[in-house]
Design a protein that fits this description.
There is one protein chain. This protein is mainly beta. It has a domain at about 40-155: glutathione-dependent formaldehyde- activating enzyme (gfa) (Alpha-Beta Complex), CATH 3.90.1590.10. It contains one helix and ten strands. The relative contact order is 0.25. Bound molecules: zinc ion (2 copies).
Length: about 180
């Protein structure tokens, strides 16, 4: 059964930033049981991370529920980067030292970042209750969590090509 995103791939016209329905990032509207811990690439180390200036630090315990590269326009704008790699955890797995500043990137979604240096740290949303996505790029050892798939590939930049064979989902990945 395929998930129907609230909004199909939006036109890249620069106006969708203010569209409340664009809550599609990261993976939303999944039951927690959709993500099998055993699927996640992980290591026992490298789970600490933080922003560029060090004002916000975090420590993660346990394994990610999933990890993936998002090509959506919202992530792109928020990070001013071609793509964003996310790792999903239960909120209870993540302990912060320093409080991220929160920006409501849509009606139901919050992006956490360092108010001093601007590093994007987290994503939470009402449609993924109890879960938090952490930017893999803010990990001290980002190699420790490898992505499992790409999503919102319909919105990818044509010059942003990855030399991997991971699944590329046009929007959300299909429900298994
Ligand atoms: Zn995204
Ligand atoms: Zn900072």
């Amino acid at each position: 059964m395929a998930i129907t995103p609230r909004v199909l791939a939006a036109g890249i016209d620069g106006t969708q930033q203010s569209t409340p329905a664009l809550q599609h990032c990261p993976v939303g509207q999944y039951p927690i049981t959709h993500f099998r811990r055993s699927d996640a690439t992980m290591s026992e180390q490298g789970r600490d991370g933080g922003c560029q200036c060090g004002a916000v630090r975090y420590r993660i315990s346990g394994e990610p529920l999933m990890s993936a590269i998002c090509h959506c326009t919202m992530c792109r704008r928020a990070s001013a980067a071609p793509v964003v790699a996310w790792a999903m955890f239960e909120q209870s797995q993540v302990a912060f030292d320093g409080t991220p500043k929160i920006y409501a990137s849509s009606e139901d979604a919050q992006r956490g970042f360092c108010g001093t240096c601007g590093t994007q740290i987290s994503f939470t949303a009402g449609f993924i209750p109890g879960l938090i996505d952490i930017t893999v790029g803010s990990l001290d050892q980002p190699e420790a969590i490898a992505p499992q798939f790409h999503y919102w590939h319909d919105e990818h930049l044509t010059w942003a090509k990855f030399d991997d064979t991971l699944p590329r989902h046009p929007g959300f990945p299909p429900m298994e």
